[in-house]
Amino acid sequence: MKTQWQRYKELELLPERAAEPQTIHSPLIAYLDQRWRSLLNHRAAQLDYEYQVEYLERRLRITCSQTTEQPSLWKRLWRLLNHPLDFGYSFSQSEPEIRQTLDREGQTWWQVYDPLTGQTAYLESEADVHIWLEERLYH
Q: Is 20 domain-assigned?
């Protein structure tokens, strides 16, 4: 029967000559190792919670951006001020803007903007973008 180290070497494709790490039997090292592991576990639990909150906030933004209400005057003004100036750009442009973005976890999101309504949505897949475009065409 293979030891845990032998299985690890096979899985990681380590050469046979790789020596097994030796454990140091020191109370100080054991204490520091225990504290380090507990700190890492605590941070991992916090990150899981933060990612859950971040995901829920994204879903809330998506849900809120799918409302049919017209954006307020202040939102329109804010968007107008935040658009780069392009004198060749027509203000009556009605084509949607679609951008692909990555979040901190590496997940792909599609940001879609409808200049007619001023709405922005964050969608999870390219299929959702197609559905959004079709709904926009027929409404």
A: no
